[in-house]
Amino acid sequence: MAHCTISTISAFRDNYIWCIHDDSTAVIVDPGDATPVLRFLEDNNLDLEAALVTHHHPDHVGGIQTLGTTFPNLRVIGSTESRFGGIKEQVREGDSVIAGGNSFSVIDVPGHTLDHIAFVLSNEESTHLFCGDTLFSAGCGRLFEGTAKQMHDSLRKLQNLPAETQIYCAHEYTLSNLDFALSLMPNNKDLQDYHNQCTLKRENNESTIPTTLSQELKINPFLRESDPEIIDNLQTLNYKALSEAEDRFAAIRHAKDNA
Asked: Which of 56, 228, 229, 237 has its CA 20 to 30 A from that of 100?
């Protein structure tokens, strides 16, 4: 991995657009809004080489046309299954992409949408996951197109990454996710502590992202479907078919959707 900085660009009400850059060249992830991206690039005197697209939702691709007008050679990289018509370079799981002097590996993570992919930037010292709306801090994406099995399988893929992987998701949903997580794991001390930390960050207008995989494995109910406390509380909520991990995951997702 070349020397780079990962910067946060806030957009809309709670979106995060990620910019991976050195002193001159930038790669952007999920630019739903061109205006804050162009402002950031101008303020930092950066040339935009590529846009990485995790999925087709407008708040992730809405700025690409304008960015392409400003940067005519912009590479737009996304899934072979993408429903967004502006993809110029199609990738799938197992592919690697060189952009901004860095190599990004691709993982297929359907569930939130059927065309959802994630990009992993890593070297011997660190791993950075750009996962769009698949994995959030203390949560995961809604199942707009995919099934619970698909999302469960996708999250299991991400769980195989190194424990200290930095997770760069696309929304600041952490506090609402933590409130739900506490309803299923009220006795989880790691979760209680993390809730306090994140509450303080948001009170100071600080981002809770990135998080780490090691942190999420402790506090994210969607990665802890076998936690006895979660199972007990799902049963209290009258969820019955909980013998299989996938069924427990589906119950947690349904409970969150109806919280």
From this structure: 56
Interatomic CA distance for residues 112 and 154, integer angstroms:
10
- Model confidence pLDDT, tens digit, residues 107-129: 999 999 999 999 999 987 899 99
Q: Give the integer Cα–Cα distance in Å for 200 and 208.
A: 10
Which residue, chain included where needed, has tokens 């080489």?
49
Classify strands 117-122 and 127-132 as parallel, antiparallel or unpaired. Answer: antiparallel
Find where tokens 């993982």 sit. 107
The residues carrying an active-site annotation are 55, 57, 59-60, 112, 133, 171
CA distances from 256 to 57, 232, 249 (A): 21, 16, 11
Residue at 101: amino acid letter: G
Angle (CA) 97 6 214, round 5°? 90
Q: Please choose, from the candidates 15, 2, 10, the residue with its C-alpha nearest in 3D space to the C-alpha of residue 104.
A: 2
pTM here is: 0.96
Residue 166 near residue 1, CB atoms below 8 Å: no
Tell me how long the chain is: 259
| Secondary structure (3-state) at 159 | helix
Residue 48: strand, helix, or coil:
strand
